[in-house]
């Protein structure tokens, strides 16, 4: 754990007096079920939940193509994401046609991110906190060793944005563009990485999950549709509605994406989404999505044992902090750096490696165009 003095940021204690703070490179603090239970009663847990709820509420009734007033911080974040996307186009996948698992070229992409993360963050956080935020940024785009990506990485991007808010760089007026511009651009960058490097789904629930990789686009997307006069949840089964309105609503865009890489009906390859389509209102779905996120992401030890805590998002578990370097994971049987000594059994905590459906469905020019041939479901 690296600790350095934090100079530009001051906070007030309960009496209103300035208190000195330190900036710390984020590290893991949830190692056991006891740690997770303690985390769920912490101020940081509450802050993460409230931040997601505020973002969700802000985009209620908003469309993706809606014009937004973008602050300097939003513009800077979009610029950073544009550059990351450019790297995906520059760093071509290696010939890995015999395997549907992750393409090793992703490690080259990730190494470039590691080399440049702090300088990118310093463009918007020119203080000593840059190193802390750079760690969250790096962990937002997948695991270098396993070449995978999942909801835990997505959660780190939300943590990155929350840190910016706690530093006073993001304000309430930024919430709408933060979701429909910045977060949606992040999803687009991730789709590019998934197509180019065939990232494996991390901790996939198979057909019993919302999506192989993401959760929050469904939550924010349901909120977008909450007040829509005509589109009902069952409309996800209408190909024409999905095609037309996927340009404006995240939920329908995600349905379109899933249908592009998997054939048959949602009932077969995505039964949970099929079940959810029977709910009467989008508002009820949005409410249920938030409960599900707390249970299936923030409440799952295999996901949250990798979550990082620093000085801006603090948490001290029962077991203390641990920093597991990349090279230390070589001895770990599941390759995830899991702490099996604390009561977790392999492979229950890690699951089984799942090859990318995109890898199976895409090929040749389809990869370059970020489109896929549907994957036959059998």
From TrEMBL:
Region (Disordered): 1-21
E.C. number: 5.2.1.8
GO cellular component annotations of the record: cytoplasm; nucleus; protein phosphatase type 2A complex
Keyword terms: Cytoplasm, Isomerase, Rotamase
Location of the protein in the cell: Cytoplasm
InterPro entries assigned to the protein according to its UniProt record, in alphabetical order: Phstyr_phstse_ac, PTPA_C_lid, PTPA_sf
Source taxon at top rank: Eukaryota
Substrates-to-products reaction catalysed: [protein]-peptidylproline (omega=180) = [protein]-peptidylproline (omega=0)
GO process terms (BP): mitotic spindle organization; response to osmotic stress
GO molecular function, one term: protein tyrosine phosphatase activator activity
Gene3D superfamilies associated with the record: 1.20.120.1150
Top-level EC class: isomerase
Family assignment from sequence similarity: Belongs to the PTPA-type PPIase family.
Function: PPIases accelerate the folding of proteins. It catalyzes the cis-trans isomerization of proline imidic peptide bonds in oligopeptides.
Name of the protein: Serine/threonine-protein phosphatase 2A activator
Provenance organism: Spizellomyces punctatus (strain DAOM BR117)
């Amino acid at each position: 754990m690296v600790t350095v003095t934090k100079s530009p940021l001051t906070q007030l204690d309960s009496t209103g007096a300035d208190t000195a703070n330190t900036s710390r490179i984020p590290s893991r603090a949830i190692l056991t079920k006891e740690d997770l239970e303690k985390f769920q009663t912490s101020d940081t847990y509450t802050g993460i939940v409230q931040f997601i709820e505020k973002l969700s509420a802000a985009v209620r009734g908003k469309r993706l193509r809606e014009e937004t007033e973008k602050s300097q911080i939003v513009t800077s974040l979009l610029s950073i994401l544009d550059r990351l996307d450019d790297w995906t186009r520059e760093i071509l996948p290696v010939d890995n046609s015999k395997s549907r698992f992750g393409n090793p070229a992703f490690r080259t992409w990730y190494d470039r991110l590691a080399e440049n993360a702090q300088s990118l963050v310093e463009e918007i956080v020119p203080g000593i906190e840059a190193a802390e935020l750079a760690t969250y940024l790096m962990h937002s785009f997948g695991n270098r060793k396993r070449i995978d990506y999942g909801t835990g990485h997505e959660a780190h991007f939300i943590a990155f944005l929350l840190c910016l808010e706690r530093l006073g760089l993001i304000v309430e007026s930024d919430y709408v563009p933060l979701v429909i511009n910045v977060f949606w651009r992040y999803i687009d960058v991730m789709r590019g990485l998934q197509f180019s490097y065939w990232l494996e789904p991390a901790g996939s629930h198979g057909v019993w999950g919302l999506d192989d990789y993401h959760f929050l686009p469904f939550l924010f997307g349901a909120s977008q549709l909450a007040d829509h006069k005509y589109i009902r949840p069952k409309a996800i089964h209408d190909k024409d509605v999905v095609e037309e309105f996927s340009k404006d609503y995240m939920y329908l865009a995600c349905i379109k994406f899933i249908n592009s890489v998997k054939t048959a009906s949602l009932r077969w390859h995505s039964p949970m989404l099929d079940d959810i389509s029977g709910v009467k209102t989008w508002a009820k779905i949005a409410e249920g999505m938030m409960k599900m996120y707390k249970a299936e992401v923030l409440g799952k030890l295999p996901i949250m044992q990798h979550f990082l805590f620093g000085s801006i998002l603090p948490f001290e578990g029962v077991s203390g902090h641990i920093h597991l370097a990349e090279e230390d994971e070589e001895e770990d049987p599941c390759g995830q750096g899991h702490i099996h000594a604390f009561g977790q059994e392999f492979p229950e905590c890690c699951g089984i490696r799942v090859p990318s459906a995109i890898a199976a469905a895409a090929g040749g020019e389809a990869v370059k165009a970020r489109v896929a041939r549907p994957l036959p479901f059998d």
